[in-house]
Fold these 4 entries.
Entry 1:
Amino acid sequence: MTQLMGRPILGLPSDLDSRSTLSDLLTGVRTALLTLSVIAVPVFGLWVLAPYGDDTAQDAARAVFALWLLGHGAPLARGPGAAPVTVAPLLLTAVTAVLLSRAGRRQARRARGRGWVRWRSPLTVYAGYLLVAAVAVAQCADPQALLRSRAVPDLTAVALLAAAALGHGLWTGLGRPVALPRPPLPPALWPDGAPAVLGRALAGWLLALTAGGGAVFAAAVLLGSAGREAQQLGGGAADWLGMLLACLTLVPNALAWSASYALGAGFDVGAGSHAGPLGTRLGPAPDFPLLALLPADRGPDWHLLACAAAAAAALTAALLIGRAATRWTPAQTAATAVATALAAVPPALLTAHLAGGALGPGRMSRLGPVPWQFALAQAAWLLALALPGALLWRWWLGRHGDGAGPVVRARVGAYRLVCRLAA
């Protein structure tokens, strides 16, 4: 007994920080259930308020699973003709990605071992999340379900999003920043601080473009007829709340569509129909409040003012690059601006792919921005405005010669000193 009491507790073979495989598996299941609860609470609330007696609790649960799968970008089928439904509500996608990233950061605190011991916990959490996804796919595979799932593409979509979000949280939780790959350029074209400047310029471009899309969307709401459309479609309290929740989940999609409109690329509203600032041609569209915001069939007029949002976003990137390029050569500044334009292509392709999709066969099989047009328009705006703008802003800041850099730093230092004295 004396020998047992004299042994240090922390020297036991099983570390107190270790977790069993079952605990990690339940952590993944709990994360999936948390994302499901974000959808289940309003859906079951609407099911309780709905006056229809032919919908059962199982039907409401299948609707929850279907929306959860759609939030992961999984393609579903609707009706007896298996009409494709591939438009992902990006608000649910964003909430899911944030919760998964937080779970990945929590797992990073426990990843202290090496080899398999280090990665066992995150992989087990990932397996637990996919276990819930398999249950969701099985529930929606019933022929009686309103939205039916397909096992292979749906599980693949869930696995890709979960791996990306968990991996991001795990990587950042381990203290490793997410950096863009270095282009194969010599130091004469790619200085040491270029990756950080490129990241700031790309973030500024995306944030400014999103804000510009929000301004275009807000103008469409103020000038459109979404309210009248909702009054015509709405019935009881459950109908109004359901329509409101559906519109809210699709607001990020509408921002992406508005940003594509501001870029000049526009977006499709069905096969043969297109909306853009240079002209709009529309055909029959489903009765939905957000689709009532579409511009009327007319030629280019004041709608071209929407392109000011894209110009402002490109100038934001130009200012961020030019401000940091006071010590660079014009070739290095131009190379950074071109690299920013190229770096904007992958997120544009992904965003356009997720924001659009299909709501049915035939004409409704094409909705949203065309990915390659959306990406090409972003690169074109950055090359047309950010490239000369960065060179011009660099020249303006460095017009005093070699002492411009110290002058700028002296002004920043004086500003910080005044702020400290005022505090």
Entry 2:
Amino acid sequence: MCATAGSVSAQDTQAPAGDANTLDLPGLTEFAPTGNVPEITAPSDELRNVDLDARLVEGAAPLEHGLIWRVYHPVPDRDGKLPILATSEGGSALISMEPGEYFVHVSFGLAGVTRKLVVPPRGPVDTQDFILNAGGLVLNAVSGNDVRIPPAKLKFSIYSEERDANGQRQLIIADVRPSKIIRLNDGIYHVVSEYGEVNAVIRSDISVAAGKLTEATIQHRAAQITLKLVADEGGEAIADTAWSITNSAGDLISESVGAFPSLVLAEGDYTAIARHKEKLYRRDFKVAAGFNYDVEVLLQ
């Protein structure tokens, strides 16, 4: 596990078989939950019953809810896609299908596995046991050493570890909120944590272990500041003020309008420039991780 421009700590605990996250597969329709052991039926005069179950890891108990099952025809259609024949949501499933070959996909949140299914014309049909090799990931973040970041100002995006030929990572899920359980296959994932809307961004590689819940806390080197144009120190903020923030290199970082706008900035040196009644006022200031404070610019 490694981190860039910040740090991340992770703790593994046994993963509960809790609610799954919604899986968005293009071209497949949504469907409503069914009973504990749903049945999927394709019309035919010659059907065989097949039991399906799924486990987080080898030897674990079958998952009782949160699973999405999809059965596909093995021959692509004119668009090059495998036709979907049946779907079910819940735990273990019972399918009734004609003898033949199919592909079965089961997902648990964003974790999933696909297997070929052969339904024989006669003889016993074994229970199909799917091993997901999946775990869970819960993300949180602090500013500085231990200042908890308000959830409304924090979001995460999860990417694959591998890069494509263009050097880009595949986005797995965006806008993940703190403390939400994300179900994933075991492996290493690239997590982008955004604190606020400006430049407080941390990238970390986090490992998810099968059968466990990984709780990761990312450390931001940033703080929230509130801008005020005042006549005297500690005075009332003056309305109708336009603000610009530049970094130590003079690059424009943020623009806003208001009496006391608030924003989150990464640790570093900045300049606040206030424009009021066609006049400019400025002040240099420093942002220290986890230290939130007001930046007052004087009308002098």
Entry 3:
Amino acid sequence: MRLASHIRSFVLCKIALAVLAISQPSYAAGIYTCVDASGLRITADRPIAQCADREQRVLGPTGIERSRVGPAMSEVEMSQRLEQRRNELQMQQRVQEQRRRDAVLLTRYPRRESHDVARRDALIQVQEQKVLAQARMQELVQEKRKLQQELEFYGNDHSKLPARLRIAVQDVEDAQQEQRALMDEQNGQVQRVHKRFDAELLRLQPLWQSQEPASSAASQ
């Protein structure tokens, strides 16, 4: 139990020094000295882990005190500082990622016209798919009508239908259901295309505007 406590104290001291290094300016070259919890005076050329919980004196080559460091933050303060640092790093990463995406977007669409053309082409592709789906649905309707004539021969009594006809009717109905689902998906695709390009446009407009002064200066 005592060993675990010592290990935990040592780890906390290491974390404290790491946080202290982050939260304070870089240490100047000097001699660090302190008296640890056991009363032992320690001297080193860098911040002393054993004295992370207390003040440390920084001496010059002649032994004259230059400054004092610490004590390090408490465990709660260290946790808060580390959490703050993590949040700052995450924010920096998000900013960098957004800049990367903006650069890619601006390379793909350097002008409003190129973005409008891309939107139009995407909608044309969806419309072509819709036309094919509608044509297929018309074919299935014609097939269903032919089968309906055969059904009338049996008085629309499905119990009297031969297996061939029963299977054919079921296949057509299944195919029609699939086509309806596909057409619904294509209608939703049109909305998604507009939503995507509208979002891109909102992001691109300030990027285009930021390039206008540079473009004007280059043309003069």
Entry 4:
Amino acid sequence: MFGEIKASLHDFGVDFDVYFHEDSLHASGAVEHAVQRLRELGHIYEADGATWLRTTEFGDDKDRVVIKSDGEGAYISGDLAYYLNKRERGFERNLIMLGADHHGYVQRLMAMTAAFGDVPYVNLEILIGQLVNLVRDGQAVRMSKRAGTVITLEDLVEAVGVDAARYALVRSSIDSQVDIDLDLLTQRTNDNPVFYVQYAHARTRAVARNAAESGVDDSDFDASTLTHPTESVLLGALADYPRVVRQAAELREPHRVARFLEELAGHYHRWYDSCRVIPLGEAPVEPVHRARLRLNEATSQVLRNGLGLLGVSSPERM
């Protein structure tokens, strides 16, 4: 099963440098090492035949059992060992992704962080992801483990393709429930957000090919010739890209990049409809044509960079 998981992730464009097996923490003695460290810090005590961690000293609503009375590690024991393992390997900031149904687990993990002498929300950062709903024909695709109707990642990729699946998952904030319209994501229309952005990139490449055939190049361009209102808007959007990426990284919100790309694609399409890169008919190539080609290439680069950050392809033709 683990091999199948790795294969599914690889096909989805996700390859981890290290896969860490939780059972190795118990087999290697890492759990006992973590408990001993907390014992030395004075935060472990024995009661009712079990080993407890005084998490109430650090804001938790009750102390937590670490080793149960039968000698087996409780659920949190693996978290203690894993966190300490990462800290001892030199990681200053650890990020953990939890599902919405584990929201109540945040406080005890932060208490664990403080018990180790670290700073909650600094040395440990927890992201809470919401549920994903699939919609087909306007109706939610019902999922039930009991009935065996579970939608897998492979099912999603098979239905809409890797690019559309990745883009659909990343364009919404993890704080909000994600609704994925399977019918919409297979349409080649502007209503499909991934098609809209990818088509903008493909259009920039078509413009570049046509410009080359028409003898237009962007050498020695004069940016002052870009005076059309759509050009000012497009230039402003391009200039905002570094800020968007930086903020997306700082806030752990990659959806900001996807939303930016959709806005940029819209600005580009409107510019494309208003401004010619290639002279009309037999008219000569003018400085404005060279400047517009450079603007076209800049837009192409930013679209390609942004899609690349999201792990989505940038097609040359569509």
